[in-house]
Amino acid sequence: MDESTAVPAIDAIRLVKRFGDRTVLDDITLTVPQGELFGLLGPSGSGKTTLIKLITGIDRADAGKVELFGEPMPQLKMLQTFGYMAQSDALYQELTGKENMAFYGSLYGLAGKVLASRIQSAALLVNLTDHLDKPASAYSGGMKRRLSLAIALLHEPQLLVLDEPTVGIDPVLRKTIWNELRALTQKGVTIIVTTHVMDEAEKCDRLGLIRDGKLIALNTPEAIIEHAGVHTIEEAFIALGSSKEDHT
Ligand SMILES: Nc1ncnc2c1ncn2[C@@H]1O[C@H](COP(=O)(O)OP(=O)(O)OP(=O)(O)O)[C@@H](O)[C@H]1O
């Protein structure tokens, strides 16, 4: 491993985030090496999105720090480094799929033939090629998610930050997308993804289990299963990760 790949893609150190007097993230330390497919798993409200927002610099921590590729966050120049797919789609409803992609692509400095070819390949990946000329308002929820994913991929970032990317996407396409995510990591891209889908969690190189703002497990899926003394990630998640909030 050379010097540049030895720098972790994500280095989050002792992160604390409070909303009012409520501590939503409590002393989270997490290092994701380059090329890893890392999954964040946790009950609803456990703090996954908040952690993602601190990693991308969208929100600031009350304590602790985040570095991406050795650079402290937040930092404007780092915006080129990662692609972010938020939980809610930030699409222009009146623009077509292609126009949405062209708009976001231009924000990343893409233009001309390069932009056109990136739009085509990203659209192909998420199976939207035949729908590129429809307005986003005419897309289903799953199509909007796919368009958002395509946008996150457009500038071929070194790091992909995906907050529940496959919600509303059918199982066949989900599989295709996960195969592609794996292919991207094989090219050295780092991916951090939040998910509620257990078979997706099992595809990750390592998982972080969050509960009530604390990282309660951080390991490979196999090691987490073994440590919890169960047979599947779903059982491990229930054994380690269930909270009262989740059973209401
Ligand atoms: N801006 C905010 N102001 C106040 N509380 C917030 C804010 N953002 C998040 N929270 C609270 O922080 C906690 C963690 O929220 P977060 O969205 O990170 O959870 P999550 O694990 O991503 O949940 P889900 O799986 O449902 O998306 C929740 O209790 C939420 O209500």
Automatic annotation (TrEMBL):
InterPro entries: AAA+_ATPase, ABC_transporter-like_ATP-bd, ABC_transporter-like_CS, P-loop_NTPase. The keyword Ligase does not apply. GO terms for molecular function: ATP binding; ATP hydrolysis activity. Signal peptide: none annotated. Keywords: ATP-binding, Nucleotide-binding. Residues 10-237 form the ABC transporter domain. It comes from the Bacteria. PANTHER family: ABC TRANSPORTER G FAMILY MEMBER 20 ISOFORM X1, ATP-BINDING CASSETTE, SUB-FAMILY H, MEMBER 1. This is ABC-2 type transport system ATP-binding protein. It comes from Paenibacillus catalpae.
